[in-house]
Specification:
By secondary structure, the protein is of the alpha/beta class. The chain has a single domain, classed as Rossmann fold (3-Layer(aba) Sandwich), CATH 3.40.50. It is built from seven helices and seven strands, in the order βαβααβαβααβαββ. A seven-stranded mixed β-sheet has the order 3-2-1-4-5-6-7, with helices on one face. β5, α7 and β6 form a beta-alpha-beta unit. The longest helix is centred in the middle third of the chain and has 21 residues. The N terminus and C terminus are likely disordered.
């Protein structure tokens, strides 16, 4: 794994992307898009496998990906990855979905809640490096359509998740909203997304 000097000047270092959850559907295509744009993204994952990425990337593109093995539930793993690689932009997509959360609710809560808080906190501590965060929540924070009498569910509607993963995402959302002012997380530009069924809605952003 290549190492970079985080003390190098902003002029010397271009944008450096770290993606958690890069092996999921959305994350894999973000990696592909960054590679096609000339970037060399770093992906952070506890699993060293490349199954989905191998399906959509050419061999030469795979060689351009900087893989960092680590666990989002471990603050030290994230901190090391960002510091040692001079990361300027974090795209946080890691999260366990319904099957994983249902099979192991404690692990689901650790990844979806503690993992998200770790990302924000490391970015705050490393704000001399990290310039922007993109965080993906989930439409699972809302319940079934019948809970909302049909039609479009507006932003600000009650959060009534019906799954373990939805409950974990709701908790991470509430904790983030509560902690943003007190931990100064809102001093850094960020974009929060809520994907569902192949579509992505941007729910809030700071330029």
């Amino acid at each position: 794994m290549g190492k970079t000097n985080p003390a190098s000047s902003n002029a010397e270092r271009s944008k450096r992307f770290l993606i958690t959850g890069a092996k999921g559907f959305i994350g894999a295509w973000i990696v592909k898009t960054l590679l096609e744009g000339g970037e060399r993204p770093s992906i952070f994952d506890v699993d060293p496998g490349f199954q989905r990425l191998s399906a959509i990337l050419e061999e030469g593109q795979l060689r351009e990906v900087n893989f960092i093995q680590g666990d989002v539930t471990k603050y030290s793993d994230l901190d090391r990855a960002i510091a040692e690689n001079g990361i300027t932009h974090v795209l946080h997509l890691a999260g366990l979905q319904v099957p994983g959360c249902a099979a192991g609710p404690p692990r689901g809560a650790m990844v979806n809640v503690i993992g998200t808080l770790n990302v924000f906190e490391v970015a705050r501590q490393r704000r001399n490096l990290v310039q922007r965060i993109v965080y993906a929540s989930s439409a699972a924070v809302f319940g079934p359509e019948e809970f909302y009498r049909g039609g479009t569910v507006p932003e600000g509607a009650p959060l009534l998740p019906g799954t373990h993963s939805g409950s974990a995402y709701r908790m991470s959302l509430r904790l983030s909203q509560t902690a943003l002012p007190t931990r100064n997380w809102n001093t850094q530009p960020g974009t929060f997304l809520r994907p569902r069924m192949g579509h992505i809605w941007a729910t809030s952003a700071r330029e």
